[in-house]
Amino acid sequence: MSNKQNKSQQSYEQKSADRRAKLHEARLREQRAEKTRRRIVIGASVAVVLALCGGVAIAVNSGGGHSGGSSAASAPVVVPANTTGPNGLVITYGKADAAHTLDVYEDFRCPICKKFETSDGQTVQQLADNGTYKIQYHMAAFLDDNLGGKGSIQALAAAGAALNQSADDFKKFHDALYANQPSEETDGYGDVNTLLNVAGQVPGLKTDAFVNAVKAGTYLPWAQKVAAAFNTSGVTGTPTMKLDGKALTLFDSQGNPITADQYTALIQQTTGTK
Questions:
Q1: Distance (Å, rounded) from C-alpha 11 to C-alpha 188?
Q2: What does pTM read for this prediction?
Q3: Are residues 191 and 207 in the same domain?
Q4: For residue 263, is it left (φ>0), alpha (ψ between -120 and 50) or beta?
Q5: pLDDT in tens, 202-243
Q6: Whether 41 and 85 share a structural domain
């Protein structure tokens, strides 16, 4: 081989080595970037619970299995009395023949839901009580997946025990759960005794049947089905409300809940009533 050919071969091999080195470095950069993206997503799934995006706590991870124990997952599904919707996965409060329907999507562990409930919850109920609309609750448990724990699903199962007694008992317990909501980082509602203490604040709720159902986890498999239905609903965060299928804006640009008067006006505008 001539010197010229030898130099050409060496040049070709050097260029090939350089290309391989660049490809290797590119792969390393992509691997590092992917690790960073994973950290961002994991961090966001915790931090976003306290953040507002149009007034909604976003469900970053809403597709996984819900806490509550493998025994609950394998137990038979006991559907509470007074449920509605396909397979008894919807909870309806108000007059069945109301002209309008308010679909409410919530997670008992969601602090933004509590924020709205504290500001507007009484008005939301009053409009159901006077027949303006009936409320259909679609409950979630995505915060158990995002933050760890089982407070959302345990609270939902306990709410099922209340619903089994009456829709009114469910609504009263629903309100009490938000009024006494622990910090979501503590997973307070993962403790059955905490749930029973909250139930004790609702007159007439804490019957032997209710207590036994909560302690035994009777409605945990049902609660898991309810939460799974939320995951396939297309709703990406809580609280979300839809009146006759139209999403309502519940928070202002600063992330504050609209006032009770503003909520009433919004309902009137949406329904075309006064």
A1: 68
A2: 0.77
A3: yes
A4: alpha
A5: 999 999 999 999 999 999 999 999 999 999 999 999 999 999
A6: no
